[in-house]
UniProtKB/TrEMBL annotation:
This is NAD(P)/FAD-dependent oxidoreductase. The keyword Transferase does not apply. Keywords: Oxidoreductase. Pfam families: Pyr_redox_3 (PF13738). Residues 135-157 are annotated as: Disordered. InterPro entries: Auxin_biosynth/cation_transpt, FAD/NAD-bd_sf, NTF2-like_dom_sf. GO terms for molecular function: flavin adenine dinucleotide binding; monooxygenase activity. The keyword Oxidoreductase applies.
């Protein structure tokens, strides 16, 4: 969701010279271990974002002082060399951009560089593979067949069945992933390809049931180009916005085709770290039978959200109708002709309200605070079009390149790239927003005007991608009420100003808590507090308290609790960041030294 200055520019000879000169000077300084000289190659305002290549962390350092401090700590063991461009650099608006590659003591990396007259403005470095532990693709792909006459040969199916019978029973996994949605499946596929013995555990009957069980009308709000899984992209005829059951079937198929070791019907009941053995003791029930696992690494892949949040309301227990959190909403079919109150005004609230209205329900949305709304078509064309679209593909921007372009923008300055995009959307859809305002809908563009994706990164809430419900709000088909819920009665909901909303159904579309709430449930509160809050950047905007973190809190990287990790987010993040988490786990499995630079401190518990 950003524009890249290089997206439409041509290769430039002078740009190539500038980049080559900078890379040579940088390489010479690093080889000489002259961190002062290396840091001086960065502009006074500059940002180096590293995804595990130098820091074994997801870490952004700022300005020459930050660069020098990081290099002083890591340079001897990383020993980076062979800096080079992988395609001709480009230049636009005074910024030279280049795709780069490099080697380290343990692996091979890719990156992206932006240069100005003052030096490096942004640098992205990412570890892509570990030397000697490369994935088996391309020329390294497995043969599959063993030609010749082999006594007592086992077929592929027999080999897989034997592995399934052993892993977690007679042979312990190195890594256990709790949660088998798209995040757990993507990580499971990465670990499988890297040869890390891992199990993905999920409580549902089949992969994809997390989607099958949601309300009937649910579709992805993000377009197909943004949502591919690792290794196996959606086919070219896949719909732009995939229905939930189609996604569910794809996840089930993907799990089988990618040979992800996946235990369905498995509920984790507790986990405890054993210092003596250096393993977790994970207690679970698999299809009703108790089982104990002893992995070295434990990953919570329960999404980007924690447990459903239903604020206690006086009188909830007296309500005579149906009430549930949005995550448990069964769909609108049973409520035709009835009255519904949906508490909340973000994505789920809008989707549920629209589906209820379509089935003849008298529905009222309770807006407790302002919400950012962006029309889907505008988001696709202006916000995503340069990176994730057919247009982007025609311009040579593959999904992998788009992911790296987006990753190359440090979070500290990302809003400056986003604000102009949302200003264009506001101008394009001015009539739409005027109608929403006249209907009484309270709208915002984020604390600094940066729109949807920064809201998502900072707080994970407060927005709706409009796929139709906003029209129902604007014309009054979905009624609006404002304020906090003061109480509930047997017949409905009472707001703080005394407004009474009669209801046969109340849906609490009230969001989720921090993911460390799952840790409190399965391990203990002390461990959850050692971890601290999960998600957010520390931007000091609404619901994202400071201090500044520079990266997503506790996601895809080492935490203050050794051997405990978090993985999740949307499909884009599950795809992109699963690589770096999988490489960190692979390095630990192989006994590679992984000293962490800049381990995140804990400032907030929830």
């Amino acid at each position: 969701m950003t524009e890249s200055p290089s997206s439409a520019t041509a290769p430039d000879i002078d740009a190539s010279t500038r980049v080559d000169t900078w890379l040579q000077a940088f390489d010479e300084a690093l080889v000489a271990r002259d961190t002062e000289r290396a840091a001086a190659l960065f502009a006074p305002e500059s940002y180096w974002r590293d995804l595990i290549a130098f820091t074994w962390n997801l870490k952004t350092v700022e300005h020459p002082d930050g660069v020098r401090h990081m290099l002083d700590d890591v340079l001897d063991r990383v020993a980076p060399t062979n800096w080079r461009t992988s395609e001709p650099p480009t230049e636009a608006d005074g910024v030279t951009e280049a795709w780069i590659e490099f080697d380290t003591s343990v692996g091979r990396g890719k990156g992206h560089l932006r240069l100005t007259d003052e030096g490096a403005w942004t640098l992205l470095t990412t570890l892509r593979e570990l030397t000697g532990h490369e994935e088996s693709f391309g020329e390294r792909r497995p043969r599959g067949a063993r030609h010749g006459a082999i006594e007592n040969r086992r077929s592929w199916r027999e080999e897989r069945d034997a592995e399934d019978a052993e892993l977690g029973v007679t042979r312990q996994p190195h890594t256990v992933v709790i949660g088998g949605g798209q995040g757990g499946i993507a990580l499971g596929a990465r670990l499988r390809q890297l040869g890390v013995p891992a199990l993905v555990l999920d409580r549902y009957d089949r992969p994809g049931d997390q989607w099958r069980g949601r309300y009937r009308s649910l579709c992805l709000h993000d377009p197909v180009w943004y949502d591919h899984l690792p290794y196996l992209p959606f086919p070219d005829n896949w719909p732009v916005f995939a229905p939930k059951d189609k996604i569910a079937d794809w996840l089930e198929m993907y799990t089988r085709v990618m040979e992800v070791p996946y235990w369905s019907k498995t509920t984790v009941t507790s986990a405890e770290w054993d210092e003596a053995s250096g393993t977790w003791t994970v207690q679970a029930e698999r299809d009703g039978e108790p089982i104990t696992l002893h992995p070295r690494e434990l990953v919570f892949a329960t999404g980007m959200s924690g447990k459903p949040n239903v604020p206690p309301v006086p009188g909830m227990e007296t309500f005579a109708g149906d009430q549930h959190h949005s995550s448990q909403h069964p769909g609108p079919e049973a409520y035709a002709g009835k009255r519904a109150v949906v508490i909340g005004s973000n994505n789920s609230a809008h989707d549920i309200c629209a589906a209820l209205w379509e089935h003849g329900v008298d529905v009222t949305m309770v807006q407790r605070s302002s919400t950012h709304v962006v029309k889907s078509d505008s988001l696709m064309e202006i916000g995503l079009g340069d990176l994730y679209s057919e247009r982007a593909l025609q311009n040579g921007v593959t999904t992998e390149k788009a992911d790296l372009i987006f990753a190359s923008l440090p979070y500290r300055i990302m809003h400056t790239f986003q604000i102009p995009l949302y200003e264009r959307m506001a101008e394009r859809d001015a009539d739409f927003y005027a109608r929403l305002e006249r209907a009484g809908f309270e709208h915002d563009w984020g604390d600094d005007g940066s729109g949807l994706f920064l809201k998502y990164l900072r707080r994970g809430s407060g927005y709706y991608i409009d796929v139709g419900a906003s029209e129902l709000v604007a014309n009054g088909d979905i009624k609006l009420a404002h304020g906090q819920v003061a109480s509930m009665t047997p017949d409905g909901v009472v707001l703080a100003d005394g407004t009474e909303l009669p209801a046969d159904l109340v849906v609490h579309a009230t969001g989720y808590g921090s993911m460390n709430g799952w840790v409190a449930d399965l391990i203990d509160q002390e461990t959850a507090d050692r971890l601290g809050k999960v998600w957010g950047l520390g931007s000091e905007t609404t619901k994202d308290p400071g201090p500044w973190e520079g990266e997503q809190r506790n996601m895809w990287k080492p935490t203050q609790v050794p051997h405990l990790w978090f993985h999740g987010g949307n499909l884009h993040q599950s795809r992109h960041y699963s690589l770096y988490l999988a490489l960190q786990l692979k390095a630990r499995y192989e006994g590679i030294d992984t000293p962490v630079y800049g381990l995140q401190e804990v400032h907030h518990l929830t």
